[in-house]
Design brief:
alpha+beta; globular
Length: about 350
Amino acid sequence: MISPSRSPHPTCGAARSDRGSRDVIRLLVLLLALIVAGCFKGNDELPSFDLEVVASTPQRFEAKNSAGHRVIVDSEASYIELPFDRFVLLQFSAVGDRFDGAVDVLVNQCMEELGLDFRFDERPIRPWGSNHMRRYGIFSRDLAAQYGYARVPSPELDAIQERQSHPQSDEVQDALLGGSTATKDNVPIPEGGCMRFASDALGGPAVLGDPTFGLAQSVSAATLEMALEDKRVRAKVEEWLSCMADAGVEVAQEHPISLAASVGRSGSEVRGDEIDIAVADADCKESTRLLQVWAAVEAEIQSDFYVENEESLDRLNEALLELVEKSSAVLGVEVPDVDLLRRDAARSD
């Protein structure tokens, strides 16, 4: 995503339709109702889901909800997918990098037309991968054995983080973000500056200005802990704790995501017996199928939100897919050939 200092013009999200506001209110009401009433609580049967199960092995679980949206937990491929992922695509590095990179390209063109000596460096694009690598804590045995709880190295991410932002003159700032100057050497500066021009050209306001966009991100984040309160998930957590104890690992906070802190991790340094603990963690999650049940319950909760807000969420997804296509075209790269970025896969058969 574009950092706050380089975000599109702040008015991009200002215009909100009455229909969009009503959709957001309905989404909030449903979220509160589920929390207050405890409707996300599970039953005593393990496992039983309101989903069509496609595959179920210790290494891979795949199911679909009534709208055809998938939930996948694949420990061998280090991949997790949830139904609401298609509504938060900008959180995926491969999508966010495309949008930011395309904005950079269009800004550079805009600034060149204004005769200004300014240019964003080329932005690396990370390959397609899960947005949930550590959502439930570590789960890939191979990665645990190599890196413990450390971040998996990414040359693209390192290159992005190394890009320096230097102070710019008032003239450049006015051209980038809009200001008191309407022209540069008799060439009109786009309203809102080159940053807003670039975002508008890619369809940014249709996403960033949609009130459902922020709510979809909030729902995606909230369902993680909501699912953890489900009886089916709690039972699996107890099995995981027992498995970890058998492996000689005491989990102080009894939380499957807490181990990175409990081993004393600091930066990229591997501490003590971290590798052994991380491998036991991944093994126990696989043998108990904790992540599969947790993700499936999350999928059920997210499906409830979708059913109640289908029109607004589908509209958001369409805007996101257009943004991905336009951004990829500007960069001259292919749209990743994955389910989440295919229109025909976003609907049930």
